[in-house]
Amino acid sequence: MGQISTSDWPVGFGEEMAGSKPETLADYKTWLQKMYNVESTSLNRTYYESVSNKILIEFMKSDFWQAVPAELERLDQKYFITEEYHLFTANFRPDMKLKPFSSFLEKTFRKNIVENENWPNEPKGGWILPESWYSEIGDIVRTMFVVKYLDGVSFFVANFSDLLSKHDMPVTVDYEAREEGYYAAHLSTEYECEIPKESWDTKRVRVKIEMQVTTQLQEVIKNLLHKYYEGRRLTTKASEVKWQWDYRSEEFATNYLGHILHYVEGMIMDIRQKQRGAKQ
C-alpha cells in the first residue's frame, strides 16, 4: 500500500486533492479509503480486536510482566520503611486494558485530522496509517498503577523504571498536568510481538505499552473527566466560549475539582513532612 506524499504539493493543491476536511468518523473512513487505498479490513473491529488481543497476551507472558507482582510488594515495603505509610492499598494489582476499537480509530482521526495544524498536508511526524499505526498509537495496551499519596507517584516512577531497564525495555516518562485538571505520570515502553496481517499471515512489530501512575483521588476525578473530554476532543470546530468561563457547564466544575484535589494532595504531603520533622 503506497503512501501519497503531500510535501511537494503546490499551495492550494492539497485541499483540492484531499477534498473537504472530514468532519465525522464516517467521513474519515471514506477519506482513508479514497486517499490511501486503506482496505476495509484495516478499519474493521474484528481485525483490530484480534491484533490488540495478541499484543496483550504476548506482553502479559513477558518476563517483565511476570516480575511485576513481586516488584510491587518490594516497593510497598521500601516506601513504608521511609515514609511509615503504605504505597498501595491492600492487595493492589494493576489491570491490563485494551483500547476499544472506537477509541483507537478516534485517536487516529484526531491526530490525522482534528489536531493537524498542517491540514490538508500531513501532520507533524507524518500520516498515521494502517501499515504503522499499531506502532504509532501508544496506548492500545495500557495499565494504571494507583498509589495512595502524591509523593508516591515520583517514588514509583523512579523505582519501576529500574525494573524496565533490568529487562532491557526502553522507558520514557511524562508527568502530565493538563488544563482539564488531569494529573498523572505516564511511563511508556516498547515491546516486540507478532501480530496477524490483514491477509491472516503474521508480522513482527514494535508496539508501545502505556503505564499510567496516579493517586487514588486523581483516579476518581479521571473517571469523571473522561466522559466530557472524550466528546469534546473529537470536534473539528473550536468552541466560542472556553470552559473556564462557562461556570454553568459540568466541565467547569469537574475540571477545577481536579485542580483542587491536586492542591489538597500537595497540602497533605506538606503536613505529613512537618509532622515528621516535629517527631525528630
Question: In words, what does this structure look like?
Answer:
The chain is of the alpha+beta class and 280 residues long. The chain has a domain at 23-215: Beta Polymerase, domain 2 (2-Layer Sandwich). The protein is 48% helix and 16% strand. It contains ten helices and five strands. The protein has helices spanning 13-18, 25-36, 45-60, 63-66, 68-83, 101-114, 133-136, 151-166, 216-232, 250-279, and strands at 96-98, 141-147, 172-177, 183-196, 202-215. Strands 1-2-5-4-3 form a five-stranded mixed beta sheet. A hairpin with a 5-residue loop joins strand 4 (183-196) and strand 5 (202-215). Helix 5 (68-83) packs across helix 8 and helix 9 (216-232) runs antiparallel to helix 10 (250-279). The longest helix has 30 residues, at 250-279. The N and C termini lie far apart (68 Å). The relative contact order is 0.12.
List keywords for this structure.
48% helix; disordered N terminus; 5 strands; alpha+beta; five-stranded mixed β-sheet; 10 helices; 280 residues; Beta Polymerase, domain 2; flat
CATH architectural designation of the domain at 23-215: 2-Layer Sandwich
State the CATH class of the domain at 23-215.
Alpha Beta
The biggest beta sheet is recorded as: 5 strands, mixed
Could you tell me the number of beta strands?
Answer: 5
Number of helices: 10
Q: Give, in order, the helices and strands.
A: HHHHHEHHEHEEEHH
The largest sheet has its strands arranged as 1-2-5-4-3
Indicate the radius of gyration in whole angstroms: 22 Å
CATH-assigned homologous superfamily of the domain at 23-215: Beta Polymerase, domain 2
Beta fraction of the residues? 15-25%
Shape: flat
Query: Could you say which structural class the secondary elements and strand pairing correspond to?
Result: alpha+beta
Low-confidence stretches: 1-17
